[in-house]
Amino acid sequence: MHRGKCPYPWVTCYLTYRQIRRYDANSTDAKGFAMGKLDGRVVLVTGAARGQGEQEARLFREEGAEVVVADVLDEQGEALAEEIGALYVHLDVGREDDWQRAVQTAVEEYGYIDGLVNNAGILRFNTLLDTPLAEFMQVLQVNQVGCFLGMKTVGPVLSDGGTIVNTASYTGVTGMAGVGAYAASKHAVLGLTRVAALELAPRGIRVNAMCPGAVDTAMSNPAVLDPSADGEEASRGLDRFYRKLVPLGRIGRPQEVAALALFLTSADSSYITGQPFVIDGGWLAGVSVI
Predict the structure, then answer these.
(1) Is 112 noted as a catalytic residue in this protein?
(2) CA 116/CA 132 separation, integer angstroms
(3) Which site in 11, 139, 152, 286 is 20 to 30 Å from 251, CA atoms measured?
């Protein structure tokens, strides 16, 4: 277990609990029970109250992980955590003191952390020349600084052999008109991912990035936030729209992104680090003229 020069004095006495809480597949208690891909893992997911983060939290819990649901949407986050048997922590990812409190709470509850999914993000539409500086900085504060602070704060206490999954974007590997601040922040996330992968590799910590295209969440489909709206019809409308852009002919589902996050957090991806994984229905492949 890595201890190093940890800046958080409240961590040291808890790290030895890892051996106690780690699930032993060969024990008599394990007989007759199906093993999950994340049994014995403790994973913190940001922006987990809804959308992709919610689906990641649900799937990780189903696969045996102890999940820390982190968000600024307290009511929704607490309800989800209670439903799936997880821990909720309030976390504004752009605030370093929030990160320190969230990590302290998680370690005090579970004894260790060995997975982080930096999922929280915001999107603003504006042409580059019309984007106010305040709006640009707001997007960077959540998407880029939030990712940086997550790795900076969780990294010192992350178990050797742990994982970090950063949520970048399709726009992190290409351009898209009207989302300059968002694209800039997601390009930066890829750079941070590669640097972290190099620096944390000696501890066996793997760091990868997901690059989703359009996904049917509140970010792409605001109708899901309106109780009076027909969310299913809105989703069908998005499918019709993206049929023209995406080779697979539809918008992505948050469950599909969650499945990729599970792959990158589990042992299935044990020899993969520092990589961007595009999940966009073939959008980045190009434009079909036939």
Answers:
(1) no
(2) 32
(3) 139
CATH topology for the 35-215+253-277 domain: Rossmann fold (3.40.50)
Q: Would you list the DSSP string of 213-272?
A: -SBSSTTT-GGGG-TTS-HHHHHHHHHHHHTTT-TTSS-B-HHHHHHHHHHHHSGGGTT-
- Residue 14 in this model has a pLDDT that exceeds 60: no
**Measured distance CA(140)–CA(144) in Å, rounded:** 5
pLDDT, tens digit (0-9, with 9 covering 90-100), for 170-185: 999 999 999 999 999 9
Give the predicted TM-score (pTM) of the model: 0.86
Convert the pLDDT of each residue in 80-95 to its tens digit.
Answer: 999 999 999 999 999 9
In whole angstroms, give the CA distance from residue 38 to residue 163.
Answer: 11
CB atoms within 10 A of CB 85: 9
Please give the structure tokens belonging to residue 75.
């009511």
Which one of 110, 112, 170, 182 is the catalytic residue?
Answer: 182
What distance in Å separates the CA atoms of residue 176 and residue 138, rounded to the nearest whole number? 19
Give kind and range of the element (H or E) at residue 117: strand 113-118
Listed by start position, the domains of the chain span 35-215+253-277
DSSP 12: H
In this structure, are residues 168 and 210 in contact, taking their beta carbons and an 8 Å threshold?
yes
Higher pLDDT among residues 178 and 8, named by residue:
178
Tally the C-alpha atoms within 13 A of residue 38's C-alpha that lie toward its C-beta: 29
